[in-house]
Design a protein that fits this description.
- The protein is mostly helical and 110 residues long.
- It has one domain.
- It has 4 helices and no strands.
- Helix 1 packs antiparallel against helix 2.
Length: 110
């Protein structure tokens, strides 16, 4: 159960971070409304809050979260940007997920 909760929390955290960064990107590069910065800021606040919910030490959580972020960013590339991931995108994101699993789920010294 710990593993499923961790993965779900990391996935939601990545979505919050990507939205928080994507909305200002739209404002800066596509001339969208400056008002996008308000939901972007809220999304980044949710991102930080979600990271704080993990019971592991902060450094371990940040390191492992990066692997999930890479995976979710590739999903974003496909689903939102409409760009099909390459084989190397998929392999790289799976390697990142494996790194996250090693960091979060390996036996820890007491």
């Amino acid at each position: 159960m710990f593993e499923i909760k961790t993965l779900l929390l990391f996935f939601l955290t990545a979505i919050a971070e990507i939205i928080g960064c994507y909305l200002p990107y739209l404002w800066l590069t596509q001339g969208k409304s400056v008002w996008l910065l308000i939901p972007a800021g809220l999304s980044l606040a949710i991102f930080v809050w979600l990271l704080s919910l993990h019971p592991a030490s902060a450094g371990r959580v940040y390191a492992a979260y990066g692997g999930v972020y890479v995976f979710v960013a590739i999903l974003w590339l496909w689903g939102i940007d409409g760009i099909k991931p390459t084989l190397w995108d998929i392999v790289g994101s799976l390697v990142s997920i494996a790194g996250m699993a090693i960091i979060m789920f390996s036996p820890k010294a007491a």
